[in-house]
Amino acid sequence: MAEVNTGGGHDKGKGKKVKQKKVSLRVDFTPMVDMNMLLITFFMFCTSLSKPQTMEINMPSKDNVTEDQQNKVKASDAITIILGGEDKVFYYTGLPNYEDPKTLVETNYTEDGLRSFLLSRNANVVNKMNVLKQKKAKEEISEEDFKKQSIEIKGDKNAPVVMIKAMDEATYKNLIDVLDEMQICNIGKYAIVDIQDGDKYLVANYLGLIPAGEQQAAQ
User: What is the pLDDT of residue 219?
Assistant: First the structure.
């Protein structure tokens, strides 16, 4: 509530002017406090809290992996993605030839780049996942069955295995972008592994950073 006290004007009895008094204004905000508390309480009960979104990341295993096991992965449809500096991204399939820079393929993080390549290599799994998602949308299967069947589809032995290697010049944003592509392309088997010296040499050779003399010596 507000109170306004005014006074002054003319002295009607004597016809003389008197000094006008200042206006005294007092605003009572007590009712507003109650209203604010009611609004806060209303929003607390009616607002739904957002759930944190998590992403599953397969980190490098600390267990010793035998050379035969490594060769089995490399001899299959393995894909190695190398994250470089200045938002550059490269990949090669199978066993690399470190002396041949043509082994490496440069791409980008757009839909027509890395995503298009991964979708083509994982087409079988992607098609099965699309069918499964349609069944879920039509409520033909439960959420539990959807998760169970998704794991089985993505775990297909013929599905590609992706190894992600980041150079020192790569940024965290590059890593997050690649992990997003793993989810979008339904890649079920992927891991972040340490980059090898051979991979660094391959990138440097591709970018023309290796002198001709050193290239011949390496060969």
Answer: 47
